[in-house]
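Sample entry (326 residues):
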Amino acid sequence: MHWAASIVLIVLIPLLIAAVVYGKIMAAAVTKAHPPVGKRIALGNMHMHALHVPADQTADLPPLVFIHGASGNLLDQANAFLEPLRGRAELFFVDRPGHGYSDRGGPDNDTPDGQAHAIAAAMDAVGIKQAILVGHSFGGAVAASFAVLHPEKTRGLLLLAPATHPWPGGVDWHYRLSARPIIGPLFAHVVAPLAGTLRMKKAIDAVFAPNPAPADYITRTAPTLVLRPRTFRYNAIDVAGLHAYVSRMATRYQEIKVPTVIITGDSDDIVLANIHSTGLARDIEGAELIWLRSVGHKPDYVATDLAIATMEKMAGVSRIPFTLHP
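Predicted structure, serialized as tokens:
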């Protein structure tokens, strides 16, 4: 049996080395293809990367802060909202801690409340006193936490297909595995880069389904940045810990008193809208829930104009003719 084990090792070790080398090459290539588009903001023991776009003198909207979801980075929301809103408001697109080109910081940033505090500190650093927060998916949990923890900085909430409440079941196995000590970093370095590269298009199609993903989405928004081993593991820690976090935090959403709009698709197979979105509409007094027929997990792309209309409504800017309901 010793000879059989030796043969396995002889075959396995080169494969592991090749996988690690591929991961390093892939990470370097992705970083070169998608360099930082904003600036890194010093926040004590960490830096947060953000794209900060000033408003024009004729701006008609308050500052807007955009918080991306799991497996993403600031390019996701910037690609949807930057050009339609350029000049109309001070825009602040952030890479959440550990994503894109933001440092992770300490273990407090493993949960949405720590990430909300980091975003609040980044807002202070660039002089944004109060803003409408726009959060997609996991970013919805961060935005809702921000509104609870920093009400003085929150002018309104726009939550797009948010993930905010405890749900039945768990998360995909690779998140749980990657979040574990020892084996998690090994998986992130050896398996994730190659497997993730092969599955990326299929994963993006599933997120957009039943709507088609934009043909240039991967090129323009760089979701491949999450396949870098360290980022992959941070993302897994975020997702694996979300259920426990929202189980604690959801009871506090009733403290939110700012104008809140939730936009969700009735065909979302990623987040259970009848738990998360309806839960927010129930828990936040005066919140408005907008259901989009035959829309999946990306209302920020499928209904961008509607999302902007909700920002205008919160800011008291009327659009005529105008209705929030499609």
